[in-house]
Amino acid sequence: MTEQPYRTTIVKLGRPARDHLEAAIRSAVPSVAPALALSVWQSGSPWFCAYAGWTDPEHCDTPVTSRTLFDLASLTKLFTATALLRLASDGRVGLDDPVVSVIPEFGAGGPRGVDGGQEPLSRRMLPVPPERAAWTVDPAVVTFRQLLTHTGGLAPWRSVFRDGGLAAIYGYPFVARPGTEVHYSDLGFMLLGEAVARLFRAPLEVAMQALVRDRLGLDSLTYAPSRTGRPQRDIAPTSIDEDWRGRRCWGEVDDENAASLDGVAGHAGLFATADDVARFGVAWLRRDPRLRLPAYWTTATSDQTPGMGGARGLGWQVAPADYLAPFGAGAYGHTGFTGTSLAIDPRRDLVVALLTDRGYADRTHEGIEELRLGVHTLIAEVFE
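The structure assignment produced for this chain is given below.
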């Protein structure tokens, strides 16, 4: 068996901490994922950057490096939220404005019923809670704030890629009344991506480049890297899409709904290096003036949904959450289905970006939760 490559570019940690992190990473590659990158920043500068595994695990010719792009999956939501908040800071939209003020098609059909949503892996429809069977919801009351906090009442997931693309969301039933419950929703962020494009009056990828990427110098941040000429050796592959595309996703987004929108969507689609994801986290932690978000720094990263069944800021997940537990109260972050995460600990002035392709073997592959928690626990102890 070929030995898994492991390399570091920046190490400011003492020997015991460095050895413990290396052991955790080596044990996870390839058992959890064939490719892994970890970027840890403290006080605004990198402290530990490590890369392990292969981008071509069948041939083992190309090791992961600091240049390797990973499919960020739902970490994309953080960038979409940042873009929307930038537009709000510029006065182009209000967070309490109805979504239909920018996307009138969302409300064109009038009030809709409620169903149970759809399970994303099995694709089966979920039952409608009996007490909600007679409910109707007016989409005209859903606000941008509610989409950002996952309280818009939209289903977590539906097979948009089979149902006609973004327009399908304009007719789907709700799963709850807006503003009452947290239901983590890809559909809500697909709408936010469309809103960013319309408000900026340019395609979403152009808006994202202008509002976030170029302002922070995140040169690796991109949608659909295979379409922009990036060679596969620089990209970590994800799962085999047996149900729809009939091929492994390598340089194209793993998420089918994002793929049906040419790989450019508000909920998934972005690729980046671990170091650039960490830089994005540092920009939020240290309130980088280049983002121009003075009115939203605190609101976005604190609990806006008490008593609603989940702790959500504006785009961000906030403590308590299992993967944030080692950092304690005040921590915030997000995770992605492909095995990605970004965690921020203001008390320690700490940012941890952990990127993997844990779905390479199959989309139900386990172990990523334990890896995140283990790595975060080690890092929290080092900087205590």
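Interim note for the steering committee: The chain has a mean pLDDT of 97. The chain has one domain: 1-384.
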